Amino acid sequence: MKGGLKASRGSRCALSLTLILSLGAWSAVAEFKTTGHDELDAIRQSIAFDKTNRENYKLRLFMLKQWVCSLQQMGANTEAFLEVSEIYKKNSPWNLMHLGGKEKPLTVKQEAEMFPAIDRGYEILDVLYAECNQLSPEPVVRTDSAVPKGGNKTSNVRKENWPLYQKNNQHKGFVETDVVLAGKEAWKFPVGFAAYAQPVVENGIVYAISPGMRTMMYSLDLETGEERWTTKQLADIVQDQLYWTPAAGSTPRVLKDKIVVRDIGSRGNKGDTRYAMVIDKKTGEIEKRVETGHVDYRTGYAPIVANERFIVFPNGPHDIHENPPVSGAFNRLTCRDIAYGRTMWNQYTGATMCEPVLKGNTVVTGTMNGNIFCMNLRSPVKGERPGSVRWQFQAEGGVNKTPLIADGNVIFGSNGGMIYCLSEEDGTVLWTFKTDAPEKRAMINFSPPVCAEGKVYIGSADTFLYCLNAEDGRVEWKYKCNDWIRSRPVVAGDQIYVCSFDGTLTCLKNTGRKAEKIWEKKVGTHQTLADLTCSQNRILVSTTDLFLWCYSDAGDLLWKKSLIECAYDGEHRILLEQVAGGAYFQSKVTAADGTIFFGTPSRFTHGVDAETGEELWRFELGAAVSVAPSYSNGKIYVGQQGVEEYFYCLDAKTGQKIWKQSIGWVWGSCNIAEGKVLVPCIDGYATCLDAETGAIVWRHRTNSSLCTEPTIDNGTVTFGGWDRFIYNFDLHTGKVNWSKYFDHGSDSGAMIAHEGKLYFPSPGNEFRCLDAKTGELEWNIYVEASIFNVTPAFKDNHVFASAMIGRMLGSTPVYCNVYRINLDTQEIVWTHPGGGHTAPLVAGDRVYVGSLTSPYLYSLDEKGNGDGSTECFWKFRMENRMEEACMAFYGDKVYTLSSGGWVYAVE
Fold this sequence. Notes:
By secondary structure, the chain is mainly beta. Among the domains are: about 15-130, no CATH class; about 175-190 and about 585-905, YVTN repeat-like/Quinoprotein amine dehydrogenase (Methylamine Dehydrogenase, Chain H), CATH 2.130.10.10. Helices cover about 10% and strands about 40% of the residues. The chain is built from 6 helices and 71 strands. The protein has a 5-stranded mixed β-sheet, with no helix packed on it. Strand 62 (about 800-805) and strand 63 form a beta hairpin. Helix 3 runs parallel beside helix 5 (about 110-130) and helix 4 packs antiparallel against helix 5 (about 110-130). It is globular. Keywords: Signal. This is Outer membrane protein assembly factor BamB. InterPro entries: PQQ_b-propeller_rpt, PQQ_rpt_dom, Quinoprotein_ADH-like_sf, WD40/YVTN_repeat-like_dom_sf.
């Protein structure tokens, strides 16, 4: 057994804290460089003459964390910040759940340590920023056209499938190849958030949410896009601040004097993300919080509607930190009064992802099994109680998007391809219309409808915008758009504006018998999911890369606004605030048969041509896809976390559903062997499914969430989870061979299996080796200050282990290392920057790895230099870091998902 190893810093060129301070950090900055974030710049300028104290430390510490992450995104080496971050770690808890959710005040001793450290932290970071590019409000537009598209199309390269998380059942992350990559971009594919929140306009003022850790909402001038005010939050000082801090997650509901916004995030109902914020309309200040129940951030959107007295919202079991865990779809509709937060009524509906519609005394909502409920909001109707169901209707297919109440009618689309018009009074069917070919790969088949001048306009995933007669449902015309239509269209006189999924905004003229295209614009680079807003001859479009675009009715771009604070380091967007709630870009790329597969925070699984980056198909799930879509025998197996309870099997060529099975939420990727699909479930079940039929073969309930990818070897499967036990089962029967308790348990790092051993990276500073037959610990490696929480790669009895160094506030490390460890001697062979929460892979004699603390993808020499270091052949700059995503090596390219909102193919 080895212990207490101190990691070499290898080829890292870092200034120590002592060296920086000896240089006179503050005076080293000859001229103050602004960031464009007024609040951050004001703090940076004030540090020299206004030292941190009890009144200002919390905001300064919070913004210091944001500033560290921004510099890391710019590629700065923040290793010199380690000594400062260790002071924070010493004086702040990991999270507040075990403290009853209450932040404790600092002691006098803690103040004496932390306050000077905050000042030093800003000094250090200003020196680092002095060596970086100047941040600016606008990007530098690229003028070159030399970026290769479509790959190098080398025909004689052997394309060995990368079908599972870390390639194979044993998670070795290794492929034998002679291909050496040059670090050039072949193509990139846009991937975004589930940005369903619609901007709202009232009296020339735009209200739009931000998911930032500091900023929750913007009030903007419609004419210019200039900020009027912003709604700020100040998170509790905890080490898991990223997960503890709520993100604004709903369309703002604008009332007479107030605005209501619901949050999303992590930590369940014991955490700080379970409220609707009531915001002062004049100032943007948060007046109060009304408890609405926790919404897991991977859901992507937190539905809520409101009037002056009440808020109405779907609610459900989103408590994955309970023992046992509780998770599932929203399954009831709740009404609370705004003034006191009292529950007025609570009505069970069954699984729903539909945002209800509220009009007068009527509440209408739909469910995933096609039920439509019409309920009384408040005063009794015909002796019925508030919240009682006035009528119920069964539609053909799920109703997953907001209905419309207009002129005494309820109008909506269902996933069976049907559009319905019902009587608001009693639910009587007034008319129906059926589309020719509903898109079976869409979870939401229709946009919300809009009614104007006796016409109903509704977009469809079959790519058509339909204009129907409001009296009888007769088709007046239909217009084919570029892509699925998810956004509610808007109507202004005889002009209709519609935006398709790919961001194509089209202006149509209704001539009575047909629609004529007036103009068409491509909005940005990413997809559009949110409903359009039209006011004063301006059209607002929100895209999944968190931009808000304002166009004139003539199609001219008037302004755009980032919905999270940012600036530009050359062409790259630098986030000056982190997205709150958790790590969103977690899906792992897999590849087989000429196609790469990956999931998105915006709820989709994609199949994309490996050579060209052309989308071949997409399949929509209920919430974020954090897993690797696993491939076997022409099929894809994938689950989601946040809304529905189904796990899916898809055709790998078409994306069409083959079967689905109800097993709950899934965070870790499944493993597949011998006709069995092994799935780690958030509700604590180790689950085995039949690969052909989806039938449950066996299940075993553990004590807490199972998050780690299971490892299959020699007829057994090993699971790990949050209850700190490792479980080994017989693959075919589910019989427990052994279970062993280990400190820290298993979180994001799966085990590697090799020759009767299990190599186990725990979320601490230990790397363990277990006997695969008994689970007994054979040896430990302790690496000073390192946190192992991701799967290594394996080659020639060496592992390439990724580690985080220094746990800064918000779960972000100060820097990350990759270690080559000799398993025979348990010694570190070499160390290099990179890794963190992303796994390395080995292809031939190269190690490829991303980083949680830099925007680079690294190509490293597998052997090393013999002196504890290794050669870095190139660094490929991405838009942002890698969170918990992992790469695939396929043919002559490496593929990865970056939290900058792109999947990259690098050749």
